[in-house]
Amino acid sequence: MVSFLLIPISTDEQTKTASAGLTNYLADPEWGSAQLAERSPWNRSTGIQESMFQYFEGATPEGAKAGARFGIGMSGWNEATQAAAVLRGSVDFPWGRFPPGTSVCDVGGGVGYVAMSLIKAYPNLQLKLQDLPDRIHQAETRVWPKDFPTAIDEKRIEFKAMDFFVDSPIEGCDVYYLKNILHDWPDNECITILRNIRAVLKPSGRVLIRRILFHRMIGIGMLKCYDYILQHAHRTGDVSGSGFVEAPEPLLPNYGEGRIRQYNLDMLLMVILNSRERTLEEFISMAVKADLKFVKLWDAGELGLLREQLSDVDGGVGHMAMELIKAYPNVQLILQDLPGHIRQVETDVCPKDLPIAIAAKRSSESKAMDIFIDSPVEGCDIYFVSV
């Protein structure tokens, strides 16, 4: 169930074997309650004594090869999960509004594909890339000279090796950015990482964890981290302060299978690193222990759902379409069903229940169709088929 994930390490034989042995691992009195990255099901299965990322650092030729493959493979993972959403206007973090020369430290940034995207999109930014020595060497000598040599020539990128459990990152940066870092580690290690950043965070600095913004407890330092955030599967009744948008009924509030990847990844992280994905409350709890204060969550979604124009195929009289229009002001709806249903929508349901959508032309078209004979309206961004 885990092995289809688009990270090279998740599809190799070591990880598939460890996943198959997960039940036995959890039942083992010596291993099952372990909370350490080097005591994971992957360690038990392979016999390797160090954490997966330490293994990647090249103590053996096999580990070095796996680490290099993982670094390159993260580019494909970023595309699959639409990591570039952090660069788009749909996420209102003000990258483009920072003054020229704003320094961004990509902490644990691998070979730097996200840093590369930031430099290309925002000429006002100066990037610092930090990770373990092998990944920084790979970035500085192979990846960046091949893919973006002008950033090196223009001195817009700095490479510096670090171990974020031992070292603090480069001091005095305006933004410290963590993408898919904290989900790799158990709580105590995450708190260590955040404390090491907090030690060099200047009053005007920022720490950004994917969609979560943290300030210093005193002052307004900022850290930005980029991780999945597990949303509750039950309706809380009050999400106004969380930054999350609950999916309209009858969907589960966390979109159910529509966001299944983060739950699959949660299982994979348990297998390879004894770690997990976390809820917003769990992120905030760790941050407080590192003397950081939660400021804001950007709910960018994962796959850009409900963007631009959506066609509700076989949508009946449009109650699901109506909920989408109410919940998402960026959605333009086209409703399609058999002629009797469409007449009912146009003459009775919408004028009575949602006249504002007609006035604003957000329900831009209702068009009769037979799904066994006709194709729906051409050129929509999303075709939505409910039950």
Detail the topology: elements first, then pairings.
Layout: H1 8-11, H2 13-20, H3 22-27, H4 41-46, H5 52-55, H6 61-80, E1 102-107, H7 113-121, E2 125-131, H8 133-147, H9 149-153, E3 157-161, E4 175-179, H10 187-198, E5 206-209, E6 212-216, E7 222-226, E8 229-230, H11 260-273, E9 278-279, H12 280-289, E10 292-297, E11 309-313, H13 319-327, E12 332-337, H14 339-353, H15 355-359, E13 363-368, E14 382-385
Parallel strand pairs: 1-2, 1-4, 2-3, 4-7, 5-7, 8-9, 11-12, 11-14, 12-13
Antiparallel strand pairs: 6-10
Mean pLDDT: 77
Provide the low-confidence segments as ranges.
1-9, 216-221, 303-315
What shape does the CA trace take? globular
Number of helices: 15
Total count of strands? 14
Helicity level: 25-40%
